Amino acid sequence: MNSVNTLKIPVQITNLQRQLGGQTILQDITTQVRPGDVVGLLGKNGSGKTTLLETLLGFGAPAFGQCQLWGEKSTELAPATKQRIGYVPQRDELPGEMTPKQLFDLYRQLRPEWNDDLLKQLMPEWELSEGKRIRRMSEGQKQKLAIVLAVAHNPDLLVLDEPVASLDPIARRQFFQQLMDYACREHTAIIFSSHIVSDMERIVSRVWCLQNGTLTCDQPLDTLYETVVRVDYSGALTDKAVIGIDQILFSQNSPHGGQLVIKDWNDAKREQLLSLGASQVKASGLSLEDIFLYWHGGTYAN
Ligand SMILES: Nc1ncnc2c1ncn2[C@@H]1O[C@H](COP(=O)(O)OP(=O)(O)OP(=O)(O)O)[C@@H](O)[C@H]1O
């Protein structure tokens, strides 16, 4: 890739390995995020999501490989490049003794692209008061304020680590609607992690899935829907025969028929099933939540 191209790519991660406390937390991650991409980062507790988001933002150096934002090494970003980023950390890092108004006054000085119009729209929409001390706010109110602060300077890259964990269902819906409007309007690259997969499904264009620090899925959401499917079939397919089919995430077989969940579903796999003795092969789509559950072993999937 030439340097002109990397300048246009908000996030480029190459062969990333990160170690913490002598342990390898992230390994072999190579991926990128382009302008307008909305990436949903999924993974079980402890799979490395926060570590990945913090590393790509330059809060800590990789043991191997690198993260670049618009062609600059994340750990050595120029001040002007930092201004292009909005970040909502997983833990509340707001100064409790300040009010939102005092914070806004401060940020307005520091951030040239500060957007007071957006603030005027978001504060009442989210029922936030400018004069209330932050330490007196509820967790959800603080989370909303952190989101407002992250978007109010019109960033080109927005990174949100569990941004909706404390929000009520109405606020969550509002947040996703606003994020969607924002992404369409500004062509901003967005990466966010969440355990609420059904919400994520409404908005993401791409899915990253981390398993023990490895990116095992990095695909457009549409591709996932098309290629990870539940297959119902009639006929006697033995467990032994099923083992010969690549990328099976789940299987339940009886002498009369059965059900499989398969990755990378395509016509060749359909033919393979037919040649093994299956008939009436019918593939149907899955929700992102079910895809995620099957991807992790399927124990609790429907
Ligand atoms: N400073 C640290 N030193 C050693 N290990 C750490 C440190 N920070 C995190 N880890 C470990 O790294 C792994 C990944 O943690 P991380 O917080 O990135 O996971 P996560 O996917 O964000 O989890 P969750 O969904 O619970 O927020 C965990 O096993 C955690 O214990």
TrEMBL record:
Keywords: ATP-binding, Nucleotide-binding, Transport. GO terms for molecular function: ATP binding; ATP hydrolysis activity. Residues 11-237 form the ABC transporter domain. Pfam families: ABC_tran. SMART domains: AAA. Gene3D superfamilies: P-loop containing nucleotide triphosphate hydrolases. It comes from the Bacteria. InterPro entries: AAA+_ATPase, ABC_transporter-like_ATP-bd, ABC_Transporter_VariousFunc, P-loop_NTPase. This is ABC transporter ATP-binding protein. It comes from Gilvimarinus xylanilyticus.
